[in-house]
Amino acid sequence: MSYKKDFPWFKDHQDFVYLDSAATSLKTYDVENAIKDYIENWSYNPHNKDSIYTYKCSEVILETRKLLAQWLNTIHYENIIFTPSATFSLNMIADGIKHLLNEGDEIILNTMEHASNLLPWYRIAEEKKAKIIFADVKNNYLDEKDLLKKISKKTKIVSFANATNLLGSILNAEDLSNKIKKINKDAIVCIDATQYLTMHKMNLDKSKIDFVVCSAHKMTGPTGLGMIYFSQNISKDFKPYILGGGMNNTITKSEYTLLNNVEKYEGGTPNVLGIFGWNAALKYLLKIDINKEFKRLVNLKKYLDKELSKIKDVIIFNKDIDTYITVFKIKGIFGQDYANYLGRNKIIVRSGLSCAKLMVDNIHETDVVRVSMYLYTEKEDIDKLLEVIRKYKKGDELDGII
User: Fold this and answer.
1) Band (11; pLDDT cuts 50, 70, 90)
2) Cα(92)–Cα(173) distance, rounded to whole angstroms?
């Protein structure tokens, strides 16, 4: 089946090929209609629960928490926080648990991570005089054996992505978190699932993961909206990042108390319009056999990689990975120039390291081209990409630039 009919972008872009879904996914008609419904019918503040009309917003917010819990396979929907983005979520987590760090404690990261899963930890390590430890990367994957070897009594935080945004490497975060906790039960495990949850569900109730973050816009939802899931075990130690309206219980001239539920982490008016949209996006995704679609996209990547391998001067950096991302380079051509060439031929891709700047240590390049697929990607799209690549002549990348 073709999913293109469900996405309004294709209506006016029928001759374009969209291959930058790892940056942001296109949005469905369902999402568009849900946002329109909020604007036209329910533009109330969810903190107003004083009438049957205004209560609708609170109901949609609660339902969306439950839909996310269904995607995450956890019964604890009450432990899901709405945030402005996955980046905000990771900053919020780092700030909310920094009081647990002491001088000399260790935070374990790796060089495959997006900047959003590096910089917040750098900052609190500097502030608390903790130490950053890097687990090895081997054959384009986080080296799990090396990571586990580096877990010690000093390990306070382990944070990693279960699907990387540049090469698309996937690992079993649930299994790895359980192994980490066997070595150090007090280590806090944080998962950046921003790329993973686009095409996979998780199984949180069978894991010892403490935090999971993601973004709505990677999974057909709106921009400006993210999520944190936190475990029951970490809840007593996780402090709010923002204080303000809607999250306090009492305020006097000398003190205040906070609500004793998830809303204590959501100070201020939430992105209700975005939550209406994410609600529709999740309902759309939950109807799909996501495992079947993932396998289809893996096969499309294999087809693309096989055909790219036949083209002179093409280097593929993640040929060995079962994912829906292909990262390649044309020898001697600057990646951004080549992405511009593809763009002028109505093929939308991404150049550079896609915010995973430490990956230069692994692939030894900085100016690669990333092709990322999603539900609406079809073989016809890949064939169009290949056609444009095959017709390329040296110098075409500079047409319109110089």
Assistant:
1) very high
2) 21
pLDDT in tens, 209-236: 999 999 999 999 999 999 999 999 999 9
**Position 400 pLDDT exceeds 70:** no
Bridge partners of 55? Answer: none
Q: Is 10 helix (H, G, I), strand (E, B) or coil?
A: helix
Dihedral (CA of 134, 136, 142, 146) sign: negative
Burial class (CB in 10 A: 0-12, 13-18, 19+), 23: middle
CA angle at 306 for the pair 303 and 309, rounded to the nearest 5°: 145
Residues in the chain: 402
Rounded Cα–Cα distance for residues 61 and 337 (Å): 43
What are residue 313's phi and psi, to 5 degrees? 70, 10
Report yes or no: 222 and 273 within 8 Å, Cβ to Cβ. Answer: yes
Taking the C-alpha atoms of residue 162 and residue 148, their distance in angstroms, rounded to an integer, is 16
In order of 57, 244, 257, the CA distances from 44 in angstroms are 7, 19, 26
Segment 362-394, tens digit of pLDDT: 999 999 999 999 999 999 999 999 999 999 988
Q: Is the pLDDT of residue 401 over 80?
A: no
Contact assessment for residue 158 and residue 147, using Cβ atoms and an 8 Å cutoff: yes
> DSSP per residue over 33-100, as a string?
HHHHHHHHH----TT--SSTTTHHHHHHHHHHHHHHHHHHT-S-GGGEEEES-HHHHHHHHHHHHGGG
β-bridge pairing 226-230 and 80-83: antiparallel
- Can you tell me the distance from the alpha carbon of 332 to that of 312, in angstroms, rounded to the nearest whole number? 12
DSSP letter at 20 equals B
**Is the predicted pLDDT of residue 256 greater than 80, yes or no?**
yes
DSSP state of 201: -
C-alpha span between 54 and 38 (Å, rounded): 11
Q: Is the pLDDT of residue 125 over 70?
A: yes
Q: In terms of DSSP H, where are the helices of 158-271?
A: 173-183
